[in-house]
Each structure stands twice: as C-alpha cells, then as structure tokens.
Recover the amino acids of this structure.
C-alpha cells in the first residue's frame, strides 16, 4: 500500500511529501516520518534560517493552533502563533437569541470548562437584572459544585494531554479514565457530558436528581485515592522533571504585562485567585487554599494543577454536605418574570417534559399559558447597561462583558477568555529554547482553542 | 466586587433628564410596563437616549393587525453619575483627577458612569494613552492588569458609533474599573495601549478584526480571527449574521437574523 503511495508522490494526493521552489526559498511539505528530506535539503545551505510551520492540524499543538517557528538548528529563534482556525462567531450568534438561549452558545466556547462560561455569562446578566442577591442558595451551591468538578476534569485533561504530548502515555490514559468519572457525574446532574447549558440567568436549570449526592460521595472516595497515582507517577519522575523543569519560564512581571492569569500566574508564587480575592457564588464561605509554586516553569504549573484538584475535591465535599441540607430548596430565582417556567423531567420518550406544568398551562390557567409563551419565545428584558463579572476558570480570569440595550437579546456579549490572553506568552516562553520545549511550554499554558477563537 | 458600596448613591434620584421623545407620555400600549422608559429600573439617576425603536416583527402600515407596529421603545443607556460615587470609587476618581490635573489633562475624562456596582470612566480618545500610563503607574491607582479591550457598535449613536471598552484590574488594591473610549464610524481611530499593557496586542487585533476600530500605534494591527482577506468587520451591527432557511416537517424556518424579533 505504502509503496504504491510513495511511488506517485503528488499525482493524486496534494498532501504528499514534496518540495517546491518559491520566491522565498524551497518549501518542503512533510507529513511525518519523512523529516529526512528536510534535513538533507537544509544541509546544503546551513546558514539560512529555517521556518517551520507546525499545525494547525498537529497532535501536539493542543488543538487547531498554528505555530510558526524560526529555527537555528534545534533552537527556536522566533515563534508566532496563528489562531482563528476554530472561530465560530459565537459572540455574534448570541446577539440573535434571547438571554437564556445565550447560555447554550457560550457553553461551547471553552469546551473543557463549559460551566465556567455559563457561570460568568449568567452572573453578568444577573448583575444587569440587579438580581444578584436573589439567586437561591441551592443554585449557588450547585454552581460551585459543578464548577469545581469541572475544574477537576479540565485539569485532568491539561495534565493528560500535556503528558501525551511529551510521550508519557500512561498519564494520558489515567487522566482520561478519571475524567470519565467526572463526566458521568455531569451526565447524571445535567443530562449532558459537555455543552450543558445548565447554569442559567436566575439559577440552574434543574434540581439535583435522586441519588446524585451518593454518586458524588462515591466519586470523592475513589478520586481521592487515585489522585495519589498522579503524584506517585510524576512528581519525582526524573524523565518527567527533566522535560518540565525550567521550561516555559515566565516571571511575575511578564505575567502581569501579558495579562496572564491562572496557574501560570500562580506558578510565580503570587497567590492571585479570584475565588479568594473577589469571591462570587459564596466562595468566601468555603474552606480551601490557593495553591502557588515558585519555580516560574512548566513543572510548577503541573504541580499547581495537581494540588488544585485536591482543593477542588475539598470544595466538592463541602458542596455535597451543604446540598444534603438543602433537599427540596429552590434552584431558580423566585421572580416569575425571569425564572424558566417549568422543571422538566425526562419522560419515557427520552424528551424533557413536565406533565404537571402542561396540565397547568393547558387545562387550568390561560394566563399561565400566555406567560409561558411570552417567556419562552420572547424571553425577559434586561435593563440597559453593561456588566463584567469575571471568575477564576481553570485557565485564569474568564469574564463576560455583557451589554444590554434594554431588550430581550444581548446587545453584545464579549468573552475575555484566559486561553486567548495566555497564549500570547508562548513566544516569550519558547524563544531561545529547543523545539521540543515549545510543546511543553504550550501544554503548560493549557490553551483550549474553542475558547481562544470563540 | 461586593465592596463597591454604590447602592446608596445609585438609588438617589438626581435631576432626571427627560428624553426628547418620551413615549410614556403618549399613552396607549406605551404605558405597559415593558414599554416604559427604563428610568424606573435603572440604577443611575440619568439616562441617555441613544435610539428610539418602533414596532416589532418588522410589521408596518395596514398589514399590522397585531398592534405591535405601534410600539415605541427608547434605548436609554445609563448616563453620567453625580458625586459621590460611593465607596472606593471616589478614592480612585479623586486620585485620577489629581494626577490628571497635575499634567493639565482634566479634559481627558468625558464622564463617569456608576451602574450596578461598576464604575466606567469615559475617556476622550486623544488622552487615552496618558490616562492609561497614569492608571498603571500611579501608586494610588496601580491598575497593573488589563483584561483586554472589547468593542461595542451602537449604529444609532451618531458620531459615537464605536466604543472600545477596557476592563482594568488593580491587584494591589483589589479594584476593578472600566474605561470606555468612543470614536465615530467615519474616523474609527483610537490610540493603542499596547505600550502600556502589552497584553492588549491580541485584544486590539481582535477588536480591529470584528469592529474595524483602528488602534493607532499598534505594532502589527492585522486580522486575528478572520482570514486576512476577509471583507468587512463581522461584529458590527450592519454586518448580517448570515444563514440559510431550514425546512423541518414541511415548515420553513428563516435564518436567525431574519426571524421576527422583539426589538
């Protein structure tokens, strides 16, 4: 098969290995396993610079990130990022749906931390509604619960894919194994493993299903044990440390200048965490610590993520205890002009439905039907103004700049995504280092291209 | 930012500015709560009407049997707030006034809006860079972290169509403020603050890409999300969303930007 393939290099396959002459020099197209052609080609004119285009379809660039590297031997002399390959116009789309539907869009931005996108947007809308103090306690506890579970699953992916990219496949397999447990919890609570659309302006969409608390406690027990595996496998592993230590160096001044937040900022030893500094959702009433490290490098960021999972587990435990006391409490704002009209349950047909609510609006009250219809089709109005309620996502400061003109749709919703901002420091972290270390540096930033491009 | 402490100042009724066209005075459906001017709901004492929208669903003339075509709704944004702003807002505003006065830049601040516990300084664009330097470097202000710039397009606000909105954070003092810079569509230039906040490099490119605001002094102002040869600036209100009609069970659903809407 492969012999026939290589015997006709570029007759049918435009992506086959080849080289061509352009005005800026020889351009080699390589597809893997064929670097020899580049090496031998470059050997002839060794003084010239080599520009390597890595990505956007490359397994170790963390998604559709394009890196343009200028190389001097193995040393990276210049690096630029090319982004936009995953731009889907979510912000523009949100302007054509009502405020509640906006959640369905923004949850798809940073697909590894959907609850954070939903939460920052919903809290922005609630601030504009002047309803921040009216959100029921149970909704707030459920938000914290889901966000902290989400932080665990997101950090697991960061560690797993980061390990995979440097060849540590065991870290990947066990990382995704544990992430699956978290996704099972999401599926139980929200009905979906990703893109939940669950945290909404006014509260959350559903109450906790029966049996969820037991499953969460079971998860805490299992995950608490398994978290040790990561420490045992990596913390003192000489190969792992050799690849990560001193790589992706960025100090505090660099972080602030480049607007970098999250684990990268905390790896400089500065304990900046919005959950502590500017608490939201009642984070000030929970007991947890901000994790810092003082090595400024990829290894420090790895250790921070590992330790933050422990802290998140503590928070999940506290949420589970609180939810045990909040059985039957409301999860949606009491204001019927904002609250979604029905609590749906999954029926035999697999569709969300609420028979009680249907009986009420179809058989008992014409006003209730009108109200339901108006709220679901038109949506609620949000007083004109703008709000920005940032939260601490697994990657740093995530905030939604929500602008209303007093209508039923967002006039403008802009997301300040930490991946987008943090990715700017790739060149600072990588220039002067080795090609292989670029991968480690990018992995330590943990960018999610869905959030970068939106 | 619960320590904003602006609730009391927000609620005080200052001299209220009557919109030039007050639909509430005309009676009829305009008296329904959702059609009243948002004065009753807004947290600030003054409102600035930037636009009056008429009708729903695009229905006009005798074809409109719903009555929605007669609806009128002013778009009124929170206007300037009177002193005191409350809490640390006054501390920051005083300090900023002080350092700007030292450099005879008092004209830099156009107005200050306090709304929903957040403070917004409207900065005249020619002074943006000076103000940004002071905000970052003055020890009493020390807004060392910029959370980027976001654009907003108000097509009906004549001469002030494009807004660039900056969110600044002072980690030293744990405060957040917002800067807003306005430029007309005919002359969409705003100075770049990349020299002060290097993080705004990509943010300004994004805002240029989506709104066409040209940030003068940016090291390489190119498109960042859209392809380099893309025509137009997609997030502007005059740029259509696009889409195709979708048929489902015999009915045809128009694309989102052509469906009826509750303006």
């Amino acid at each position: 098969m492969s012999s026939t393939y290589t015997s006709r290099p570029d007759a049918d396959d435009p992506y086959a290995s080849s080289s061509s002459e352009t005005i800026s020099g020889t351009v080699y197209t390589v597809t893997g396993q064929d670097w020899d052609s580049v090496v031998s080609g470059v050997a002839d004119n060794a003084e010239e610079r080599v520009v390597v285009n890595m990505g956007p379809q490359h397994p170790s660039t963390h998604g559709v990130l394009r890196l343009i590297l200028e190389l001097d031997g193995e040393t990276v002399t210049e690096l630029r990022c090319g982004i936009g390959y995953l731009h889907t116009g979510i912000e523009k789309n949100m302007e054509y749906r009502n405020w509640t539907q906006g959640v369905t869009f923004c949850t798809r931005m940073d697909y590894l931390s959907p609850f954070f996108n939903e939460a920052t947007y919903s809290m922005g809308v609630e601030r504009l509604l002047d309803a921040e103090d009216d959100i029921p306690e149970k909704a707030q506890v459920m938000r914290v619960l889901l966000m902290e579970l989400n932080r665990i699953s997101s950090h697991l992916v960061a560690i797993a894919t980061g390990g995979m990219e440097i060849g540590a496949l065991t870290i990947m397999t066990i990382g995704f194994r544990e992430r699956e447990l978290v996704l099972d919890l999401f599926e139980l609570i929200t009905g979906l493993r990703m893109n939940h659309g669950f945290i909404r302006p006014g509260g959350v969409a559903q109450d906790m299903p029966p049996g969820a608390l037991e499953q969460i406690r079971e998860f805490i027990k299992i995950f608490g044990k398994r978290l040790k595996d990561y420490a045992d496998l990596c913390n003192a592993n000489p190969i792992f440390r050799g690849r990560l230590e001193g790589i992706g160096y960025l100090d505090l001044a660099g972080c602030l200048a480049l607007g970098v937040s999250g684990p990268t900022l905390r790896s400089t030893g500065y304990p900046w965490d919005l959950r502590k500094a500017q608490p939201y959702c009642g984070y000030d009433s929970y007991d947890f610590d901000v994790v810092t490290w003082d090595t400024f490098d990829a290894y420090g960021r790895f250790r921070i993520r590992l330790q933050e999972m422990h802290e998140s587990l503590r928070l999940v435990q506290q949420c589970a205890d609180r939810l045990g006391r909040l059985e039957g409490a409301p999860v949606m704002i009491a204001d019927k002009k904002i609250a979604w009209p029905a609590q749906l349950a999954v029926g035999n047909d697999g569709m969300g439905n609420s028979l009680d609510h249907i009986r009420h609006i179809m058989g008992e009250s014409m006003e209730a039907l009108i109200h339901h219809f108006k709220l679901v089709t038109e949506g609620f109005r949000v007083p004109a103004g703008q709000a920005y309620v940032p939260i601490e996502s697994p990657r740093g400061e995530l905030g939604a700049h929500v602008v209303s003109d007093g209508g039923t749709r967002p006039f403008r919703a802009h997301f300040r995504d930490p991946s987008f901002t943090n990715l700017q420091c790739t060149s600072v972290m990588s220039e002067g280092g080795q090609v292989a270390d670029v991968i480690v540096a990018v992995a330590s930033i943990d960018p999610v291209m869905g959030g970068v491009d939106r | 930012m619960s320590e904003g402490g602006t609730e009391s100042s927000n609620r005080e009724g200052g001299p209220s500015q009557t919109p030039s066209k007050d639909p509430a005075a005309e009676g009829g459906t305009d008296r329904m709560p959702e059609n009243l001017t948002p004065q009753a709901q807004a947290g600030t004492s003054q409102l600035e009407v930037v636009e009056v929208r008429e009708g729903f669903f695009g229905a006009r003339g005798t074809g409109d049997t719903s009555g929605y075509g007669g609806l009128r709704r002013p778009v009124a944004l929170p206007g300037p707030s009177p002193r005191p702003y409350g809490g640390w807002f006054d501390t920051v505003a005083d300090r900023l006034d002080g350092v700007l006065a030292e450099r005879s830049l008092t004209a830099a601040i156009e107005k200050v809006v306090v709304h929903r516990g957040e403070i917004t300084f409207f900065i005249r664009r020619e002074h943006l860079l000076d103000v940004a330097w002071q905000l970052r470097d003055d020890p009493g202000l020390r807004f060392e972290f910029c959370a980027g710039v976001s654009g907003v397009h108000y097509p009906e606000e004549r001469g002030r169509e494009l807004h660039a909105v900056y969110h600044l954070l002072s980690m030293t003092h744990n405060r957040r403020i917002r800067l807003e810079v306005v430029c007309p569509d005919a002359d969409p230039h705003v100075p770049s603050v990349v020299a002060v906040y290097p993080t705004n490099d990509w943010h300004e490119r994004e805002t240029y890409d989506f709104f066409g605001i040209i940030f003068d002094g940016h090291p390489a102002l190119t498109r960042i999300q859209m392809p380099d040869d893309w025509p137009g600036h997609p997030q502007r209100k005059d740029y259509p969303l696009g889409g195709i009609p979708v048929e489902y069970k015999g009915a045809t659903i128009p694309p989102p930007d052509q469906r009826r809407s509750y303006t």
About this structure: The CA atoms of residues 104 and 226 of chain B lie 41 Å apart. Residues 1-44 of chain B have pLDDT under 50 and may be disordered. DSSP finds four helices and eleven strands in chain B. The first strand of chain B starts at residue 47 and ends at 54.
